[in-house]
Amino acid sequence: MYWTLELASYLSDAPWPANKDELIDYSIRTGAPLEVVENLQAIEDEDGGEVYESIQEIWPDFPTDDDYLWNEEEY
Asked: What ranges do the domains of the chain cover?
């Protein structure tokens, strides 16, 4: 399983919170690349219905607004 910023961006508008099956269904319905579906299928869902609150729970390296060092107060 590998994530890139481009692949993860297909889930940015997903209906969070969502479980694995809902995310797979969403990615198929929105026409996301096959790699997105394969990555979601590779997630080990231990209890069968784990709910994910955001993309950060699936891909912890997903950049957040804090990662960009943009200080809005300066402008």
From this structure: 15-44
